[in-house]
Amino acid sequence: MAEQGVNHGRRRFLTATTAVVGGVGGVFAAVPFIKAWQPSARAQTAGAPVIADISKLEVGARVIEMWRGQPVWIIRRTPEVVAALASQDGRLKDAQSANIEQQPDYARNETRSRKPEIAVMVGICTHLGCSPTFVPEMLPQAFDGEWKGGFYCPCHNSRFDMAGRVYQGVPAPDNLRVPPYFFIDDNTIMIGLDADPKAA
Ligand code: FES
Fold first, then answer.
1. pLDDT by residue (tens digit) across 28-74?
2. How far is the CA of 9 from the centre of ligand 1 (A)?
3. Are residues 97 and 126 in the same domain?
4. Which residues lie closer than 8 Å to 161 by C-beta, 6 or more apart?
5. Rg of the chain on CA atoms, in Å
6. In 3-state terms, what secondary structure has residue 200?
7. Among 93, 126, 128, residue to substitute to test ligand 1 (most atoms within 8 Å of Cβ)
8. How many structural domains compose the chain?
9. Which domain holds residue 195?
10. Do 186 and 162 fall within a single domain?
């Protein structure tokens, strides 16, 4: 399935290339090479990696990409949020990311991420699969008087901090999952691969 999708994508790319070169040949050089990597929607559903442009992602905001039919959240955390993460360790079930199935090795750190300010995680509650609500404000909430920002699942009141770490005393058993990903450049993330296979 995935190969079919890639082939379709390549065919479209070649068609587009022909049209551009035939019309205004010089413009071809300006077509971002990165576009050639974009798989079709069908291939994305089947599991192909997805490219996320975070150039317009503001500090404190979140963008959602779909990968393997799942929402992947990308958040540009504020310095205050990053600094507050350690203060939550004593309230969490797995502050040190001991469950190795919930993140790649490069995300087994204090921020569960490759870069402290950029969080990447699958937005599905580890209890029964609801989609938690993004509550970035570092203010007391009705569900947590010591809230430092994070995610609240309204289905059965599970809470996760801004690194996707689950709090104690809630039904969700595990931290939110961190998918494989790497930075193509500062503003571009490849979701679904740990590293650029062409660089191996
Ligand atoms: S599905 Fe999130 S708490 Fe139950």
1. 444 444 544 555 666 656 679 999 999 999 999 999 999 999 999 99
2. 37
3. yes
4. 85, 88, 92, 148, 149, 150, 167
5. 19
6. coil
7. 128
8. 2
9. 50-199
10. yes
